[in-house]
Design goal:
With 397 residues, this protein is of the alpha/beta class. It has two domains: 210 residues, Glycogen Phosphorylase B (Rossmann fold, 3-Layer(aba) Sandwich); 169 residues, Glycogen Phosphorylase B (Rossmann fold). It is 40% helix and 17% strand. An eight-stranded mixed beta sheet has the order 3-4-2-1-5-6-7-8, sandwiched between helices. The chain has a six-stranded parallel beta sheet with strand order 11-10-9-12-13-14, with helices on both faces.
Length: 397
C-alpha cells in the first residue's frame, strides 16, 4: 500500500515517440522516485500529437490531457509565444485543461502530494485548487527551474508568484542563482532547498564511444553545441566566435543540436558569414543518442544568455568532454573556471574564440579539464545524488 501518492504536473515531459528531443529530466526524476515502494507517481502533462493519452511505464502512470491545440506545446511555451503572439490565445485553453486534469486526477488517484514543476502555471494551479476545494491536507512542492523566475517579471506576475510560493510546503531550486532570485521576492515561506536536476550516468559516460566524426566524415577539430534555438540560448554568439576560430583552424566543425523558432535566422547568419562548410545544424536528436556526440567532440560550448542550471554541461562532463560556458552565476554551480571547464563572457566573441583556440592548441589542458569535470559531475550531479534530496523532502511531508 502506497503511503505517498504524488501527482507530478509539468509541461515538459517526453512523448517517447521516435526522434523526440524533449528534455527528460522530470521523467528521470519521477522514475527514480517511483522505485521507492512507498511512492506512487502519477504524471499530468499536455498531450503531444501521436503520443498516448495514457500509459504506464517505469512504475509511472502518465496522463496526457488535450487542450485543443498542439502548437503552443511544441517546444518551450514562452519562446513560442514570443515568436508568434497569436499563440497567447491558446494559453487559456492550456490553463483550463491543465487545471481540469489536476482536479480529476487528485480525486481519482487519491493524491496527497502535488509536485509542480515551474511556478506558473503548474504551482499556481495547484495552490488555486487547494484553496478552492479546501484541501488543507494536500501538500505542494514547487520546483523552480529558472525561466519562470528570471522572466515574467511584471507587477502582476510578481504578485502571482509571491502568492503562489507563500502557499506551498516546500520550494526546491536548481541553482544558487535561482535561489537568490526567489529570496528577492521576500516571500514568507522560506523553506527553500537547493536540489538540482541530475543526469543519467548510465547513458552519459565515456565508455563505448561511437565516433560521430566517422559518421560525418570529420577529420578536424569538432566542437559541439546543444540547446533550444531560442534567443536566451545565445547561439548567435557561438556562430560569431567560430568565425574567429577559423582564422587559425579553417577546417574546424561546429555541430549545433537543437531546434526552435530561431533556426532559420541562425542558418542565415551562418550563410552570411560563409560558414556553411564549418557549421552544421542537426535539429533535434533523441536524448539517449546525445552521448555519442559529447564523446566525439573535442570541446562543448554554450553561449547561453540565461540558465536556470545547465544540464548540458553536466552531460558533457560525464562524457569527459571539456566545456566552455558563459560567465553566468547559475553556471558557476557547475563550471569552476579553469579547474572544471572554462567560463568566459561569450558575448565578447573574440575572447570567447580565444578560449576555444586555447583548448584546441593545448590538448593536455583540455584533457585535465575533462577529467576534473567528470569527477565533479559524478560526485554532485548524477540522479543517485539528486534524487536523494527529493526522497528526503517527500518523506518529511
Amino acid at each position: 500500500m502506497y503511503t505517498k501518492k504524488i501527482l507530478v504536473t509539468t509541461t515538459t515531459f517526453p512523448s517517447f515517440l521516435e526522434g523526440d528531443s524533449i528534455p527528460p529530466f522530470i521523467y528521470e526524476l519521477s522514475k527514480k522516485l517511483a522505485k521507492n515502494d512507498d511512492f506512487k507517481i502519477i504524471i499530468s502533462t499536455p498531450y503531444i500529437k501521436n503520443s498516448k493519452k495514457f500509459e504506464e511505464r517505469d512504475n509511472l502512470k502518465i496522463y496526457r490531457y488535450k487542450y485543443g491545440f498542439t502548437s503552443l506545446r511544441n517546444g518551450a511555451i514562452l519562446p513560442n509565444i514570443k515568436k508568434n503572439k497569436l499563440l497567447i490565445f491558446q494559453l487559456p485553453f492550456l490553463l483550463f485543461f491543465s487545471f481540469f486534469s489536476l482536479v480529476k486526477l487528485v480525486k481519482k488517484e487519491k493524491i496527497n502530494i502535488i509536485h509542480a514543476h515551474w511556478i506558473i502555471p503548474q504551482t499556481f494551479l495547484a495552490v488555486l485548487y487547494k484553496k478552492m476545494f479546501l484541501k488543507k491536507d494536500l501538500k505542494i512542492i514547487c520546483t523552480i527551474h529558472g525561466s519562470d523566475i528570471f522572466e515574467l517579471r511584471g507587477w502582476l506576475m510578481t504578485k502571482i508568484k509571491k502568492w503562489t510560493l507563500n502557499n506551498v510546503n516546500y520550494i526546491t531550486v536548481v541553482s544558487k542563482e535561482v535561489m537568490k532570485e526567489v529570496k528577492a521576492l521576500k516571500i514568507k515561506n522560506m523553506s527553500i532547498i537547493l536540489a538540482p536536476m541530475g543526469v543519467d550516468d548510465e547513458i552519459f559516460n565515456s565508455e563505448n564511444n561511437k565516433n560521430i566524426k566517422e559518421k560525418y566524415s570529420i577529420n578536424n577539430p569538432l566542437i559541439l553545441s546543444v540547446g533550444r534555438l531560442v534567443e536566451k540560448k545565445g547561439i548567435n554568439f557561438s556562430i560569431l566566435a567560430i568565425k574567429e576560430v577559423i582564422k587559425k583552424y579553417p577546417n574546424v566543425k561546429l555541430l549545433i543540436i537543437g531546434d526552435g523558432p530561431l533556426k532559420n535566422n541562425l542558418e542565415l547568419l551562418s550563410k552570411k558569414l560563409s560558414l556553411e562548410k564549418n557549421i552544421f545544424f542537426l535539429g533535434g536528436v533523441a536524448h539517449e543518442k546525445l552521448s555519442e556526440y559529447y564523446k566525439s567532440a573535442d570541446i562543448f560550448i554554450s553561449s547561453s544568455l540565461s540558465e536556470g542550471f545547465g544540464l548540458t554541461f553536466v552531460e558533457s562532463m560525464l562524457c569527459k568532454c571539456p566545456v566552455i560556458g558563459p560567465s553566468l552565476n547559475s553556471v558557476s554551480d557547475i563550471i569552476k573556471n579553469e579547474k572544471v571547464g572554462i567560463q568566459v563572457d561569450t558575448k565578447n566573441t573574440k575572447l570567447f574564440a580565444s578560449k576555444i583556440i586555447e583548448l584546441l592548441d593545448n590538448k593536455e589542458k583540455g584533457s585535465l579539464l575533462a577529467e576534473n569535470g567528470y569527477k565533479f559531475a559524478k560526485d554532485n550531479f548524477t540522479w543517485d545524488v539528486s534524487a536523494k534530496k527529493y526522497y528526503e523532502l517527500i518523506f518529511d511531508l
